[in-house]
Amino acid sequence: MTGFGIGTKESAKAKYTVEIKSLNSKYLELNLKLPKVFSEKELFLRNECTKLIERGKVNMLLNIEYTDTTVNAAKIDTQLLKNYYIQIKNVAVELGEDVQNALALALNLPDVINYDEDAADEDEWKDLLSTFYSALEKFQQFRDDEGAVLKTDLVKRNQSILDSLEEVEKFETSRIPMIRERINHYLEETVGKENVDRNRFEQELIYYIDKLDITEEKVRLRSHCEYFAKALNSSDANGKKLGFISQEMGREINTLGSKANNAQIQQIVVGMKEELEKIKEQLLNIL
């Protein structure tokens, strides 16, 4: 399921921004980018995303913009720089060399310039965390809104299959007499009416018609459709369950079509299959 959410918060020290985007995926694929100063919090954030987002190809960006740009500015260890500079000049004098760039050399030596990246305090973490939950709340609301639209569409298509099943029953009453008449007419033309053993004919007809009976398929299909509707109304994440139910619906519809032996019923079955394919496509967007 796609989703988007952005949260922002400003304090006296900084502005915090968290942006979450997701695309469809069977599993949770989380790409998390956060400031280095909070790298130790990555595992906690990943666990929260696993628990609250569940599925999707998710890109999450957490950013901090400090109001005072000097907060995280580089700092020079002046005493260490002086020591390096003096040593470089002394070595140059001893070797009789003229060093024009002694200061530049000293600046590039270890530990002269330090970046204060690990100075975030607990208040900063609390501000960033509240921004994270704010973005996550908007992200979930986006998903809820999309889910409501998908649910309406799925309910309509599921009901369409049930309505088509009612149409099948209208043609079913005339189906068996038509099959009986067709077989009887074929026998009379082939072997002659006087040569047909009526008792044997009735026995074979009962066996044949029993093979074409679609009562069980209708009962199971209706049951699957009702269970599908019930699962749709559940508050749990039922994407996989709905997928399994739709597979069972497909099996019953296919069997119904193969047993129909009736042009009108087979046309109705084609319509059922079209609705079911659209249901399966939409289920890829369901958690």
UniProtKB/TrEMBL annotation:
Endoribonuclease YicC-like N-terminal domain location: 1-151
Keywords from the UniProt entry: Endonuclease, Hydrolase, Nuclease
UniProt cofactor(s): a divalent metal cation
Chain ranges passing through the membrane: none
UniProt cross-references to Pfam families, sorted A to Z: YicC-like_C, YicC-like_N
GO MF entries: hydrolase activity; RNA endonuclease activity
Stretches assigned to the Endoribonuclease YicC-like C-terminal domain: 169-286
Superkingdom field: Bacteria
Family of this protein: Belongs to the YicC/YloC family.
PANTHER family in alphabetical order: UPF0701 PROTEIN YICC
Name of the protein: TIGR00255 family protein
Species per Swiss-Prot/TrEMBL record: Olivibacter domesticus
